[in-house]
């Protein structure tokens, strides 16, 4: 197990390197002259000499590989540059907005579990009955609704018509997190209910279930005693892997609900062409995603006795 | 058991026909959009701004007095065409990479797979948002941004499929009888792996429609005044309370279109499922 962890962590190094390289290329290929962008976003007029001076100061006159090397060294020390707009360092700004996004993500995952696990199990147990069709139909609808539409519908009905929740902002206490959470959870739960259903059905088909039924073990006991225990492993893994799409989805939802997290920060930065902020957002979201996936994989390996006790090398 | 399977296979066939026709209708609407609109989707008429749905304007008008129905019909073009273009690009590009990697293997394979690992390490929309913003928006740039992040998945699927059939006896036989690499790929490998890749592609169209319109909603896709569902909804955001129809009509258009494509994707998957197909052939 230890060797496996070490191996997986080492595999992460080239990926992290690739993430930084790709983000660096991305920001340098499409962008016009950074100084021009800074000039227009700060609204100050600069002479040609001043611009040249700034380029030298920022090292923009050096060859690209050298720029990348310098940038990477600084990034490793937590220095991701300064925002073009506010002039403040980007990294502390990102860190200060992260808790809001994390709390939104965690609450969405919790609601997703609360919705999809019971519904998925119910759907599998009542396979091809009315309940199953109804649940599958609802999950189909949820799957076809873009999250920005869901947010606006929820705002329209719950905030504007019924006045139950605040329209936007993160200041309204627990009430302000309800609608953004619900938006993200609806999309995720729709996808996830189907996966839970499939995992439970898969398990129900196995020989030991038939055997248990033949021996007259109560259906309830088979389901809660054995089937759920074994299919939980798959279910947890799938859930953790879907966090990636959740991290991407928060950007739109955060900006609609004015939720003050990293996603809204990035969307605001796009309008201002504030590239250092966007860059920090992309890199750190990717790093978070990769680390979550690695953790999932390790937990999966740890929890699965076949893998833990059997093939150490796998 | 066999009877039930045959029945299921036939049911899948009928379903495919129905959803195929529905999909075709949606695409035809997009193709003939300019001929179907009751009004000019770009003609502004400020005296008629924000009219609720009524006999003159079935879906109402937006804040410039433009007819919503015409704009929704016209918008189908931008949204659906760009989604289809996107899926075509990633299927072909990812498929080509996957075939090369799977068939030749070696250093090129491991290099390209490491590259695709890096792309897969980004949460899709996060990367697309950044790429589209660097490319300065525009529908085509939104397509490029999403293509950049989506091709590796297709490369992966194609590669694993190629690896599965590459050493099959019939390919050995083809090689022994002197078929060249290109001929083997074209006549033996592609027809055998196409099913799985097509299913993935069709199932992705709906998602791609949502992602493209999501980028447009953020102002990173179609620029105004182009009629596009995502950007139309973004325009209507501030009028949610007074004129909800400005958001509802494009929103429902996205929802229904995505639903049609998703249903078709599911049916194509069931239809191509070898459990049904094998039975039908033997009939």
Give the chain pair forming the largest contact, with residue counts. Answer: A-B, 49 and 42 residues
Number of helices of chain B: 11
- The CATH architecture of the domain at 100-271 in chain A comes to Orthogonal Bundle
| Cα radius of gyration of chain A in angstroms | 24 Å
**SSE string of chain A:** HHHHHHHHHHHHHH
Order of helices and strands of chain B: HHHHHHHHHHH
Give the CATH level 1 class of the domain at 100-271 in chain A. Mainly Alpha
Total strands of chain B: the figure is 0
- CATH-derived topology of the domain at 100-271 in chain A: MetI-like fold
Outline type of chain A: flat
| pLDDT averaged residue by residue of chain B | 86
Parts with pLDDT < 50 across at least 5 consecutive residues of chain A: none
> Structural class of the secondary structure composition of chain A?
mainly alpha
Overall number of strands of chain A:
0
Strand content of chain B: under 5%
Round the Cα radius of gyration of chain B to an integer and report it: 23 Å
- Termini separation of chain B: 14 Å
User: What's the multimeric state?
Assistant: heterodimer
| Termini gap of chain A | 9 Å
**Helical content band of chain A:** over 70%
Would you tell me the overall average pLDDT of chain A?
83
